[in-house]
Amino acid sequence: MAKNVLIISTSLRPNSNSEIMAHETEKGARDAGHNVEFVTLKDKEIKFCKGCLACQKIGHCVINDDANEITEKIKNADVIVWATPVYYYEMSGQMKTLIDRANSLFTADYKFREVYLLTTSADDGESAIQTVINGVNGWIACFNNVKLCGYAAGGGVNEPNDVNNQPQILKQAYELGKNI
Please, is 134 exposed, middle or buried when counting C-beta atoms within 10 Å of its C-beta (0-12, 13-18, 19+)? Predict the structure, then answer.
């Protein structure tokens, strides 16, 4: 059965390695017959959460920027795929800011049940992404019946387009999408 998959690329860098991986995952998910929407945070205005919790009463954030539209897409997707570069052994700041701004989902009738993660980092050790996985699992823990179903890590990439020189990473990203 076809699922509605939302891929969110959080890197702001042109030709970013995590976005290249995200597009490979998109291809895999499309080849598997899923409906895929790709969102990039490039050129999006997403301000910091104020912590007012009004969103949980009114169903959306009181700040009028691009976060509300993306949060609505998250709410209505069956599957969420986060793609992030790893900065200082953690998810990108813009990914964390969007997660914070999606606080209205906590009390919403969200559809997503599956979450996947794509990461790229200069460090190619498994420990390079563990805190990112922990952070995503912290977000997931706030939702009933939602789980991290898989991840693909592209280590040893630093400069733009580096991941294109590592076909095994691209294959891993494609297969992640294919197996959603």
Answer: exposed
Token representation of residue 168: 């095994």
Q: Output phi, psi for 171, to 5 deg.
A: -65, -40
- Distance between CA 5 and CA 166 in Å, rounded? 25
pLDDT tens track for 97-131: 999 999 999 999 999 999 999 999 999 988 899 99
| Cα→Cα distances 151→9, 25, 60, 156, 176, Å | 14, 11, 29, 16, 7
Structure tokens at 119: 């990461």
Cβ contact 152:17 at 8 Å: no
Number of DSSP helices (H) and strands (E) in the chain, helices first: 6, 5
Q: Number of structural domains, the chain?
A: 1
* Tokens, residue 100: 């914070």
Give the predicted TM-score (pTM) of the model.
0.97
Token code pair at residue 98: 């969007």
Range of the domain at 168: 4-178
Confidence category of residue 43, pLDDT binned at 50, 70, 90: very high
